[in-house]
Amino acid sequence: MTRYFASTLIGLVLLTGSISAKTLTEITLEGVVKGEERQVLAQVPLKVGADVNESDIGRAIRQLYKTKKFRTVSISSINETDSSTGLRISLEMNPYCDGYEFHGNKKLTKTKLKELVTIQTGELLNDAKIYEHVVKIKDAYKEKGYLQADVQCNLVPTSVPNYVIAKFEIRENDKVRVETITFTGNSAFNDKKLHRKFKTKERHLFSSGEYDETKYKAHLDTLMQTYKEEGYIEARIVSDSVGFNADSSGLNVNIDLDEGRQFFVGNFYFRNNKVIETARLASVVTMRQGKPFAASKFQETQSMVGNVYRNEGYLWSQLVPTYKYRGDTVDVIFDITEGNPAIIRKIDIAGNDKTREQVIRRELVIYPGQKYSQSSMERSIREVRQLNYFDNVTPDIAPNNDGTIDLVFDVKEKENIGQFSAGVTYSAQEKFGGNFSVSIPNFRGAGEQLDAMAEIAQGRQNYSLGFTEPWVFNTPIQFNARAFYTDVHSRYDSRYDYKRIGTEFGVGRKLKWPDDYFYGSAKYLISYDKNSYTSPDVEDELGIDIVSKGILSRLYLALIRNDTDVPQFPTRGSVFTIGSYLGGIGGDYNYLKGIVSYDWYQPLGKKLVMGAKTKFGMVGSMGDNIKLGYNDLFQVGGVYYDGVVRGYDETSLGTDLMMMTLSTELRFPIIEQQFYLGGFFDMGNSWNKLEQVNIGGMYKGIGTGVRLMLPMVGLLGFDFGWPLDVPKSSANPLNTDYKFSGKPNFYFIMNRGF
Prior knowledge:
Layout: E1 13-14, E2 22-30, H1 37-42, E3 51-52, H2 54-66, E4 70-78, E5 84-93, E6 96-103, H3 110-116, H4 127-143, E7 150-157, E8 163-171, E9 177-184, H5 191-197, H6 213-229, E10 236-244, E11 250-258, E12 264-271, H7 278-283, H8 295-311, E13 318-326, E14 329-337, E15 344-350, H9 357-361, H10 374-386, E16 390-399, E17 405-413, E18 419-427, E19 431-443, E20 448-457, E21 460-469, E22 477-488, E23 498-510, E24 518-531, H11 536-542, E25 545-546, E26 549-562, E27 573-582, E28 592-605, E29 608-620, E30 627-628, E31 634-635, E32 655-656, E33 658-671, E34 675-687, E35 699-710, E36 714-723, E37 745-750
Parallel strand pairs: 1-4, 2-5, 6-8, 9-11, 12-14, 15-17, 25-30
Antiparallel strand pairs: 2-3, 4-5, 7-8, 10-11, 13-14, 16-17, 18-19, 19-20, 20-21, 21-22, 22-23, 23-24, 24-26, 26-27, 27-28, 28-29, 29-33, 31-32, 33-34, 34-35, 35-36, 36-37
């Protein structure tokens, strides 16, 4: 350790004799950089020609130290007589910083260390400031488990007088591991359970025993929460200690507990509630009598009771719980101050640089002049998020002096919401291909959507152009139009080549019944279809007429209920869809094709989400015999047609009048709403008669994949699927050359989740 870390010297008054009101004849300075003498003398409360005594000299020393420019100050007398004296002021100046360096650091990067050091070039360095930064660096190492890291600071002079380089010399030493964790005072929970609940772990075969001081403190809180969730509401940590073992090679952790008694749920009472009846408040209590008094359940109950008032506009209501103990039973009394309801004066929209304000405002279900409602606020946030134009929607409530409130919906618009892509695609069936697409989902900032797509692969061409207006004539009626051209050439058999060119128009609207999560839509399609397929045997087997070419005039009707929390990667809620294609509104086709699907999502904790999907479809007639194109039959297998069953080739599980698929998924976000890992289990099959439908006869596949949301590109997916069953030879009678390989399939997917 250099002399700069020595304790600051107290200034010495070296006088040859006692000074008592002697005349000061001169002042000389030592240790001052040339050119700074006048500035130093200006800080000294001593004047030549005036009387000076010991008290004046002590005050001068204190004044010089207060400037923080000097490490040591001493004053001695010179040329002293009986009535006069001169003074020599000897100073050691604190140096100026010309920069700083780090040496010996490996576990912490220089970038991280620079974030800790706040010393500026040209700043005066004193022992206190140097010590402060040494402690900062040591603490950063302690947080990483390097409790024995040693840090010293050497001040190296530069060519500029009184300027130094601060060199932080670091010896990291080995990371210290936790060797033992000992609990005392516990009886309700045995050591094994406490070790399992305590997230700081001992070093063993399956644990590194890493010690992080910040995490350790948080883990102590989690340990107490474990007790409080079982009704031990008075549980506390009497003491805890972390110390080195005998040879300083590891840490011993000792935690002394006072568990207290276990308490159980009693009765809930409500006092001073006039606006909301007691029965309604009691109905939202989530705690059950006789169960352990769990802290989280009590917080949930308190929040639920508060929400009842917030939903009625009583934002300023207060709930003060009082606990009454009956032995080991806890009764809770809520003393309620209801206050007055909050009336909304105005609603502002902020953060919408591109999106027109009316696009956001028309999605709100909360309005000026109404009483505030928490449920309406939450629903409004959900509806704005469902637009999928914003990364975040943040509400704010501003109270006014007259008792009203103002609401602000602060939105953060997604960057590059328009999507453009041009690239290469691959599938096991169609091999390599190219695609181009552009999608502008918030066209002109008016919520309109413009889409154009071109896809070219081996044996497949697909082009489309579409436009959607969500509010026609400022009414909540959606209008969409699309023109398309499809040309498919089968690489198995040219008899199954297919072309379609046409256009489609549709309208849709949100509904209020059965509830306001429902949406109804109708679309009319007219196209010219040409199908090269002809096979009397298959027509006889299915009991249908396959139209080789003609005019398709079709109406599609759908009813959808969607209460998912977000449009992309939902974490909770469901989507129910029932739709029907009426392919006999004039033209050369005659069929009725119905599809029912249900998607469901549920969080499992730690950001893991489970999803389940099912889909059932059936083709029937509209009076006469079924007349349809081959491509309008249900095709099962792969990812591109009606029945998605990954692990199998496209359409390899059948082309029939009926189909069913079931799928479960687990997904985890690496980056929320951007990058996900997932696993899936798919089942599916097709049949030509209702009595043949059999879940036990469905083909199964498992796999894993990723989903990546890229700006200007959209949602990309890559899946690997493994088949678990061997399809029967008749599973796909139309592709007689198809051979089942049993190998996993790779799928590239755009704009679709797991």
